[in-house]
C-alpha cells in the first residue's frame, strides 16, 4: 500500500465513527421525515404514497391572500411571520447583550482565571433544564409575582401588569434568557483572537472608543457574531416548548404547529411542515454564511 493511500485510509477510518453517528442520528431520520412528508394518513393508519397533498394543504389559500387586496393572510404565512418576528427580536437582543458581555470579559477582565470564573457564572443557569428555567419566571412575572408586587408597592401602577407573563414579551424574555450564552461564546472567542496592538494603534491614531469599536473590533468579531446568529436563529425557529409555556398556549409558532399535529397523529402533515421549516432555516443559514467565509476565518 502506498503511503498516500494508507494516509487516506487512516483518515477515513478516523472519520468513520463520527460519520456513522451523523448518518444514524441525522441523515437517516431526516430522510425518513422527508419520506413521510409525502405519505397520506387516515385516523387509523399511515398510507405509504408519493403525494404533494400535504404541502399543498399547508399553503392552501396563501396565494390568493397575497394577490387579493383586503384578504386576510393565510394561517401558514401568519405563523411563519410570527416565528420570524420572535427570531429577529431575540437575535437583536442577544446580539447586543452577547457583544457587551463578551466585550467586558475579553477587554476589561485582565486575568484568565477571573475570565474562567465569570464564564462559569454565566453557565450556572444551564445546569438546570430549559423547562425549569422557564418556570422560574412565573413567580417573578405572574399577576401576584414579585415584579407586580414591587410595582404596586412603589405606587408605579394601580393594578397588576397583565402583559408580563403569558405574552409575547415573556416569550422573548425567555428566549433571551435561554440563548444569550450561544451568542456570548463565539463572540468572546473572536474577540480573544484580536491582536491587541491593533487597538493600541487605533488609540495612537486618535480614534475614540466608539470609533475603535465600530472600525476595529466589530469587523474582527464578525465571524463570532455570524456563528452566534446561526445558533440563535436556528434554535428559536424550531422552539415550541418556550412558546407554549411562556405564551400560555396562546401564541403560534411553526414548532408549536408541528408539535400539535404530531399529538393528533398527523405525522405526514407534521413531517411536511418540518421539511418546510428546515428549508427556511437552511436559507437563513446560507444567507448568513455568505456574509463571512467561515472556512477561511476559522
UniProtKB/TrEMBL annotation:
<dbReference type="Pfam" id="PF00528">
    <property type="entry name" value="BPD_transp_1"/>
</dbReference>
<feature type="domain" description="ABC transmembrane type-1">
    <location>
        <begin position="80"/>
        <end position="288"/>
    </location>
</feature>
<feature type="transmembrane region" description="Helical">
    <location>
        <begin position="267"/>
        <end position="292"/>
    </location>
</feature>
<protein>
    <submittedName>
        <fullName>ABC transporter permease</fullName>
    </submittedName>
</protein>
<feature type="transmembrane region" description="Helical">
    <location>
        <begin position="225"/>
        <end position="247"/>
    </location>
</feature>
<feature type="transmembrane region" description="Helical">
    <location>
        <begin position="117"/>
        <end position="138"/>
    </location>
</feature>
<comment type="similarity">
    <text>Belongs to the binding-protein-dependent transport system permease family. CysTW subfamily.</text>
</comment>
<dbReference type="InterPro" id="IPR035906">
    <property type="entry name" value="MetI-like_sf"/>
</dbReference>
<keyword id="KW-0812">Transmembrane</keyword>
<dbReference type="InterPro" id="IPR000515">
    <property type="entry name" value="MetI-like"/>
</dbReference>
<keyword id="KW-1133">Transmembrane helix</keyword>
<feature type="transmembrane region" description="Helical">
    <location>
        <begin position="12"/>
        <end position="39"/>
    </location>
</feature>
<dbReference type="GO" id="GO:0005886">
    <property type="term" value="C:plasma membrane"/>
</dbReference>
<feature type="transmembrane region" description="Helical">
    <location>
        <begin position="86"/>
        <end position="105"/>
    </location>
</feature>
<keyword id="KW-0472">Membrane</keyword>
<feature type="transmembrane region" description="Helical">
    <location>
        <begin position="163"/>
        <end position="188"/>
    </location>
</feature>
<keyword id="KW-1003">Cell membrane</keyword>
<keyword id="KW-0813">Transport</keyword>
<dbReference type="GO" id="GO:0055085">
    <property type="term" value="P:transmembrane transport"/>
</dbReference>
Amino acid at each position: 500500500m502506498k503511503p498516500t493511500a494508507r494516509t487516506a485510509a487512516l483518515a477515513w477510518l478516523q472519520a468513520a465513527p463520527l460519520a456513522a453517528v451523523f448518518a444514524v442520528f441525522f441523515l437517516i431520520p431526516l430522510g425518513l421525515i422527508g419520506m413521510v412528508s409525502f405519505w397520506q394518513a387516515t385516523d387509523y393508519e399511515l398510507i405509504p404514497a408519493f403525494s404533494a397533498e400535504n404541502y399543498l394543504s399547508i399553503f392552501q389559500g396563501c396565494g390568493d391572500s397575497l394577490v387579493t387586496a383586503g384578504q386576510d393572510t393565510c394561517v401558514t404565512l401568519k405563523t411563519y411571520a410570527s416565528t420570524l418576528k420572535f427570531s429577529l427580536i431575540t437575535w437583536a437582543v442577544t446580539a447586543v447583550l452577547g457583544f457587551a458581555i463578551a466585550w467586558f470579559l475579553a477587554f476589561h477582565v485582565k486575568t484568565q482565571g477571573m475570565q474562567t470564573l465569570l464564564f462559569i457564572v454565566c453557565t450556572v443557569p444551564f445546569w438546570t433544564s430549559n423547562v425549569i428555567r422557564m418556570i422560574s419566571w412565573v413567580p417573578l412575572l405572574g399577576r401576584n409575582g414579585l415584579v407586580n408586587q414591587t410595582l404596586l408597592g412603589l405606587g408605579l401602577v394601580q393594578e397588576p401588569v397583565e402583559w408580563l407573563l403569558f405574552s409575547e414579551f415573556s416569550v422573548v424574555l425567555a428566549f433571551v434568557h435561554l440563548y444569550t450564552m450561544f451568542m456570548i461564546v463565539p463572540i468572546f472567542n473572536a474577540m480573544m483572537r484580536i491582536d491587541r496592538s491593533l487597538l493600541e494603534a487605533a488609540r495612537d491614531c486618535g480614534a475614540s472608543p466608539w470609533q475603535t469599536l465600530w472600525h476595529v473590533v466589530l469587523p474582527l468579531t464578525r465571524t463570532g457574531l455570524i456563528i452566534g446568529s446561526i445558533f440563535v436563529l436556528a434554535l428559536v425557529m424550531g422552539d415550541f416548548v418556550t412558546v407554549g409555556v411562556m405564551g400560555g398556549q396562546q401564541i403560534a409558532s411553526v414548532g408549536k404547529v408541528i408539535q400539535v399535529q404530531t399529538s393528533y397523529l398527523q405525522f405526514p402533515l407534521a413531517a411536511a411542515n418540518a421539511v418546510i421549516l428546515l428549508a427556511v432555516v437552511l436559507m437563513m443559514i446560507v444567507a448568513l454564511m455568505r456574509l463571512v467565509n467561515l472556512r477561511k476565518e476559522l
